[in-house]
Amino acid sequence: MKEFKILEIKESIFEDNNKQADLLRGELKNNKTFLLNLMSAPGSGKTTTVLKTIEALKNDMRIGVMEADIDSDVDAYAVAQTGTKVIQLHTGGMCHLDADMTKQGLEGLGTENLDFIILENVGNLVCPAEFDTGASKNAMILSVPEGDDKPLKYPLMFSIVDVLLINKIDALDYFDFDLEAVVERAKKLNPNIKIIPISARTGEGIDEWANWIRAEVRNWQE
Amino acid sequence: MHELGVVIKVAKTVENFAKVNGITDIDTIVLQIGQLSSMIPRYIEACYPAAVHGTILENTKLQIEVLPANGMCGNCGKVFNLIENKYCCPYCSGEDIELLSGKEFMIKEIIAC
Fold first, then answer.
1. B48 lies in which domain range?
2. Could you tell me the domains of chain A?
3. Are A7 and B6 in contact (CB < 8 Å)?
4. What whole-number distance in Å separates Cα of residue A47 and Cα of residue A120?
5. Is position B27 within any domain?
6. What is the ipTM metric for this complex?
7. Is B92 labelled a binding residue?
8. In this predicted model, what pLDDT tens digit does every residue of A104-148 receive, in sequence order?
């Protein structure tokens, strides 16, 4: 008869990811590379926003993009057309990126000589909020057609991001979207959140967004 | 459904622990999952056999302990369950709440020899 005993492990699986994320952030800080984790639901205009962001900043800094998707390379193709350094990551069915996958992506992309890297996370408002990728800052996009109740439905996402971009504001007239209610709901979850209404299609608000990035990259590189 | 990737990580962590501590025969793994964690116990159980297939954890039993989502009211200092009370203090209706537990996803222990 074998004698079984209880062995304590007490290891938090999220804790392990958090440790790796902190290590990665440290490396990025040393390399003077600012990594932005950009999250949103599918169809919120992430890739269009990324393209506008590149256009606004390409003369000020050296930019790289990591596109994370479950499958396909349509987003990476669109970004590559702008001449920006880009890598497509496939998560193989996983609904989020963790610090380990982000590190592998950065190694594949090569961070040397890059000031600013955008990580376009998997389109999903749930799981990416749970896993620290090691990014310098986190941003999310909520688009007008998705509705103003999203901070109520996905509170964790709204509470962990530094910036909330409210996209497709050129379509405000066509939807029952209460912009003030979103601002109030998001601030209740996250008093320090920076909220920038934009339209990636018309370019409205992109200047303010680009200025925020310039200031953050400068801070990071000091 | 992100449980599979996370359970594979659990399997790797336990395998490492077993290697380091010279353990060859594992009977049961005990996980602690908070009520506010995005990990659903039912799905963890469903994907466990696939996640441990071909590892030293194949044929081990899985036990899950659910940890309550408890918070402390910043106004009156009392502790209550957040889900049962919809994030609102049942004693003073305060909404300034400090989260005490509920987001955990831990490997608590293993039963082995």
1. 3-68+101-112
2. 15-217 (3.40.50.300)
3. no
4. 8
5. yes
6. 0.80
7. yes
8. 999 999 998 899 999 999 989 988 888 899 999 999 999 999 999
